[in-house]
Write a structure and sequence with these properties.
With 157 residues, the protein is of the alpha/beta class. It contains three helices and seven strands; from the N terminus they run βααββββαββ. The strands form two sheets. Strands 5-4-3-7-6 form a five-stranded mixed β-sheet. α1 runs antiparallel to α2. The radius of gyration is 22 Å and the shape is elongated. It starts with 5 loop residues before the first strand and ends with a strand.
Length: 157
């Protein structure tokens, strides 16, 4: 069974690679030092610092495994080859919210890089799914907790 592809922009790829490097080189060393210092305090059975350091070590190692898996399955979006005719991952889309009479700009990214506050929405989100494959001036409907929201696509870059 093949693993799910991790869709990333070039910027997102670089961020994940930098995080992995930081964890492997810096955080592992810091945690090892924390464990060493906690061990030097004697009885490990009642040593809260030792327990905390071991928990931190487990968290760091778990994140390393996750990042390595994501990078192994990464598919980088070629943003230079994107056209402005159809929305795809990597597209910057300006939509018009019909109900609130306002324009909103979104960058469609893979779920790993999604940050709605920054206008980066996942291709797997309801809005992202509704936008993918659609063209200029199309109107889409997205089901939201408050009901259906309609958007018109104004610009695709």
């Amino acid at each position: 069974m093949s693993e799910k592809k991790t869709m990333l922009t070039y910027e997102g790829l670089k961020k994940l690679e930098a995080e992995l490097e930081e964890l492997k080189v810096v955080r592992r060393r810091e945690v090892a030092q924390m464990i060493k210092e906690a061990r030097s305090q004697g009885d490990l059975s009642e040593n809260a610092e030792y327990d905390a350091a071991k928990e931190e070590q487990a968290a760091v190692e778990a994140r390393i495994v996750i990042l390595e898996k994501m990078l192994r399955n990464a598919e980088v979006i070629d943003e230079d080859s994107l056209g402005g005719e159809v929305v795809s991952i990597g597209s910057k889309v300006t939509v018009f919210d019909i109900e609130y009479d306002e324009e909103i700009e979104y960058l469609i990214v893979g779920s790993t890089e999604a940050d709605p506050v920054q206008g980066r929405i996942s291709n797997e989100s309801p809005l992202g799914l509704a936008l993918i494959g659609r063209g200029l001036n199309e109107t889409i409907s997205v089901e939201a907790p408050d009901g259906e929201i309609q958007y018109r696509i104004l610009k695709i870059a």
